[in-house]
Amino acid sequence: MPVPRLKLGIAGLGRGFMLLLPTLAAHPGIRLVAAADPREEARRQFRADFDARTYAEVSDLCADPDVEAVYVATPHQFHREHVELAATHGKHVLVEKPMALSLEDCQAMIDAMRRAGRWLVVGHSHSFDAPYLRTREMIDSQDFGAVRMISALNYTDFLYRPRRPEELDTSQGGGVVFSQAAHQVDIVRLLGGGNVKSVRAATGGWDPARPTEGAYSALLTFNNGVFANMTYSGFAHFDSDELCGWSGELGQPRDPDQYGTARAKLAKIQGPEEEAALKNTRTYGAGLSLANSQPQDSAHNHFGFILVSCDGADLRPLPHGVQVYAHTRRYLETLPSPEIPRREVLDELIGAIRHDRPPIHTGEWGMATMEVCLALLESARHGHEVTLSHQQA
Length: 393
Prior knowledge:
Elements: E1 6-11, H1 15-26, E2 30-36, H2 40-50, E3 53-55, H3 58-63, E4 69-72, H4 79-88, E5 92-95, H5 103-116, E6 120-122, H6 130-140, E7 147-155, H7 176-192, E8 196-204, E9 215-222, E10 227-233, H8 261-267, H9 271-280, E11 305-310, E12 313-318, E13 321-326, E14 330-334, H10 343-355, H11 363-382, E15 386-387
Parallel strand pairs: 1-2, 1-4, 2-3, 4-5, 5-6, 7-10
Antiparallel strand pairs: 7-11, 8-9, 8-15, 9-10, 11-12, 12-13, 13-14
Helix pairs in contact: 4-5, 5-11, 7-11
């Protein structure tokens, strides 16, 4: 008997929604039935694209009896409020990363969903990407021995893409730690297979015009003895897509001759208001729609260079598979190109709701990742190692 499509409502038609839009539109198990956003132009575009209901307020979306689950893709600081609203109305929830900006908010979200008896999935983060999931399967096969060390680095132009003022304010969830470390920590935790015990980190903010953390390096130790080095820079110089065959983060081909375009475009902008206005022209309903959001991905999503050192081999997830560096030979464990990019996010949500299959990226998982991110900021601020106190998922 066919499984009915999941009737999904969207809370927030911003950047997170745009990244997942091709997946939402193409996935055979999803039906978009409603959305909420304060922008009339976004609501108008959603009605045109999906012949679905729209609301100005998230509370009205959550009260819609036809909505089974809500994808919370609103700004970080509203995640707790909107998850609690969904729980009050008995909806399942997929909430964007970062889960929230404090552990108190994360726990409140978990408690609300538990009281409602509904599933909470945190994503999408790059730990859903097929190359990382396949690497975890290879580790679990025990063919390569125990994981010992993980190296992760990513260099991008993140800080020089058009931003709203709050995206350059750490206290409001801005900067690379909240927006980007959540990806990297998720990947490292997935591959490390254990609970993070301690964090020692430093952050860098070297451009007064972009007054937030633009880079970090961190050493994570796990309770199982694994340790991981993570480095991220969004300062738009070296681009680590060079180490991934010039395949971009979203699987798209990159042109190395386009070096420096992010900084060059930003230099032409006069002030934060003009910058925010430019960003708004790249949003859903203001020039972007379903028609011009279709992916041109030829490879899987990724998050820079990752290397997992095991007793029997080093494993390197790549956009087309997993490169294995064993004792006497190296080879590529290939993955077929994705037919629907990022579908693993929705597969996990549907698996939980329709088949009662416990997801990887639970609320507890998301809270554990945020504990690491917050510890990274604390360690950098005070110059000491931070021992994690909460139970890690």
